[in-house]
Amino acid sequence: MNAIILSVGDELVLGQTVDTNSAWISQQLAAVGCGVLAHVTVADDQAGIERAIRDALPLCDYLIISGGIGPTEDDLTRQALGVVMNQPLELNEHWLRYLEEFFQKRGRSMPPANKIQAMIPRGAKMISNSAGTAAGIDAISGGTRIFVMPGVPKEMKIMFTRDVLPHIAGAGKGAVILSRTLHTFGLGESSVAEKLGDLMNRTRNPSVGTTVANGIVSLRVNARFDSREEAERRLDETADACRVALGDLIFGQNDETLPHVVASLLANPEPETHRARTVSTAESCTGGLLAKMLTDIPGSSRYFKQGWITYSNQSKYERLGVSMEIINIYGAVSENVVESMAANARRLAKSDYALAISGIAGPDGGSATKPVGTVCIALAWADAADKKLSVVEKRTFLFPGDREMIRDRSAKMALTMLRYHLLQTKMPF
Ligand code: AMP
Ligand code: MG
After folding, report:
1. Angle value at C-alpha 267, between 357 and 407, nearest 5 degrees
2. For 387-423, what is each residue's pLDDT tens digit?
3. Which of 92, 166, 356, 395 keeps 20 to 30 A from 79, CA to CA?
C-alpha cells in the first residue's frame, strides 16, 4: 500500500511557505503502514496540477492532495481533477446549503465566488469540513483513491484524521511503519556505513539509512510490517544489531542529544558516595558554547559547577593559573595549555571533572603547523591516590568547516571525551 502526496500552492513553490502538510501526512500514513513514494509540490497552475495528478495516478494506491480548493481564481485543484477524471464539475446542493448557512450565521450573504466550493467532479464524493468553507473531495480513478483536502493545515488535519486516515488504515489491516533514530558522533557517514555493512542493504526490512546534521550521523531504522507487534519486535532486533555493529559510538536515540546523555551519566549517582558527579569548563575558542550545552538541560545545577571563558593568554594565566612559560613555549593552542587549563579548573571549581578547549576556529590565525580547525581538548579527573591531583587526558583534533562548525564540533568532542570516560571505554577515534 503506498501513496503520493501532492501539495498545491504558489506560496509553496516560491518558498514563502514551508510545506508542513506533506511531512505531517507522511507521518500519519506511516502509522498505518502506508509507504509514501513521493512528495510533489506544484504551483497554482491548472495545467501543472493536471500533469502532477496524471503522472501520480498510475504509481500509487492513494493520491493525497492538499491546497487549491478555496473560492478564488487561483484555486484550481478541483478543475484540474475534473479534467484528468474526464468528468464535469457538478453542484453539490447539500454543500451549497451548508455554505449559505455558514455565511448567514455570520450575518453575511454568500459571495458568488464561494459557489465553486460546492462543485465536485461527477461521481466523486464530498467530504464535509467542520472548520472552514472548503469541502474535501473523495474520488476514484483507475485503481487509485484520491483525497483532496484544504491547504490550511488546521483544516487539513481535522479532515485527514476524521475522513481520510480511517479508509487507509482499514485497507492496511493493522499494518504499520515504525521508525527509530540512533545517533552517533565522531566518525563520518561513510565510516559508520562501513561498520553497518549488510544492515544498510536497500532491500532489507527493517531498513537502515544514515543522515548527517551538525556532525551527528544518525541511523534511521524503518520497520514496515503487517502488525504493530511484529514491527516493534523487528525494530528492536535491528536496533540491537546496529548497537552490536557500532557499540558505544551510538550515544542515544530519537530526541536524545549529546548534552542530555552526558548530563544523565553525570547525574547518575556514584555507587560509593551516592552523589552526582560534577563538571567545570575552561574554554577558549568555543567562547562558552560547551558550558551552554551542559546548562541547556534543566536541572544542570546538579552537575555543572563553573565555567571560565579564558580567551586571552593573560586570562588563561590570571584566571586559571596557566604558566606564561608554557603558553610561550608551546602556544595557546597546545595540549600542554589545555592540560593545565583542565587541571587548574578542576582544582579551582572543586569539581570531579573539568573539560578544557583551546583551538583555532578561523578564518584567520592558522599556520602551517597549526592550521585552522586545530583544536586541543583536555579532560581532567581525580587521581586515584590523591583526589586533589588530576589525571589529564589530552587530544588534538583537526576539524573541517567554517568557524561555527569548528566551534560546534569542538564542544561536542569535549562532551564525547567525557562520555567515553564515564562509560569507562576507549574512544574509537
Ligand atoms: P489553500 O487551501 O490553497 O487556499 O491554502 C490556504 C493556506 O494554507 C495557504 O495560504 C498556506 O498558508 C497554507 N498552506 C497550504 N498548503 C500548505 C502546505 N502544504 N503546508 C503548509 N501550509 C499550507
Ligand atoms: Mg492556495
Report:
1. 20
2. 999 999 999 999 999 999 999 999 999 999 999 999 9
3. 166
